[in-house]
Amino acid sequence: GLDQATRPLGSKELATLVAHLSGARAISPASQKQVRVIFGTESLTSGVTGTDSAYLDARDWKLVSGRPFSDSEIRSGTGVCLIGETVRQQFFGAGDPESEIIRVNRTSCKIIGLLEPKGYTGFGQDQDNVVLMPLAAYQRRIAGNRDIDSIYVAADDRTPTTELLPRVEDILRDARRIPPDREDDFSIRDMTQIADAMASATTTMTGMLGAVAGVSLLVGGIGIMNIMLVSVTERTREIGIRLAIGAHEKHIL
């Protein structure tokens, strides 16, 4: 299957997309792992994601307080992080977490911002139990390698994702020097594949999925989504995929 054929993405593919892909509002790498996060005597297993300053735009995610990563923090892999509401509640209650130091996989991380709450997915997964840190810091301190799990691409207002998808595929095939007679060694998933995967896992979400247009899914490669609609990301290890499944209420109801 496609998943067996995939191989890791890297900084070359990311840089090539940023340089050559037209019609994208934001392009952002993401690598993620479940690790133990500690503050004082409290601990919590959270989804820690290494990414860059474009991630919030690509995921249509805002900050309640604080600031995003600076360019210098991204370049140098500084030990700074943004946390979700669940992490804040676990360690600080209703208090202000900014400038506090937490331990992420035995490395110190200074909190510089608090993410807007997203709540639970249809699968019951807590999207606010997250820590974001600069990709270079994640690769060096958490993953121990320079692989990129996924790349998020958000279409601009003028470009349908159906137009963006073949552009992404062509650019990546060229960057990875895949001969014309060979299949892709990366995966791109669109809304139809989300619906198929979700339908096999649950029947309760199919109505909502049918109402969401232009949202796509991420699988060990690259996902394309319209940021005007995306508000929820679902990571489901059981089916081996990463889903971008949600929409704002006005698009669902």
Structural commentary:
By secondary structure, the protein is α/β, with parallel strands linked by helices. The protein has two domains: 2-26 and 149-252, no CATH class; 28-143, no CATH class. It has helices at 2-5, 11-20, 55-58, 71-76, 85-92, 135-143, 161-175, 191-201, 206-211, 249-252; strands spanning 24-39, 42-51, 63-66, 80-83, 101-104, 107-115, 130-134, 150-155, 188-189, 222-226, 233-236, 241-244. The termini are far apart.
List the helices and strands and how they pair.
Layout: H1 2-5, H2 11-20, E1 24-39, E2 42-51, H3 55-58, E3 63-66, H4 71-76, E4 80-83, H5 85-92, E5 101-104, E6 107-115, E7 130-134, H6 135-143, E8 150-155, H7 161-175, E9 188-189, H8 191-201, H9 206-211, E10 222-226, E11 233-236, E12 241-244, H10 249-252
Parallel strand pairs: 2-7, 4-6, 8-10, 9-10
Antiparallel strand pairs: 1-2, 1-5, 1-8, 3-6, 4-7, 5-6, 11-12
Helix pairs in contact: 2-7
Keywords for this entry:
six-stranded mixed barrel, alpha/beta, disordered C terminus, 2 domains, globular, single chain, 253 residues, 30% helix, 10 helices, two-stranded antiparallel sheet
Shape: globular
The portion of residues assigned to helices is 25-40%
Largest sheet: 6 strands, mixed, barrel
Element-by-element helix/strand order: HHEEHEHEHEEEHEHEHHEEEH
Work out the radius of gyration.
Answer: 18 Å
Low-pLDDT residue spans: 206-253
Q: Strand fraction band? A: 25-35%
**What is the structural class?**
alpha/beta
Please tally the β strands and state the result.
12
Q: Cα distance, first to last residue?
A: 36 Å
Order of strands in the sheet with most strands: 1-2-7-4-6-5
- Count of helices? 10
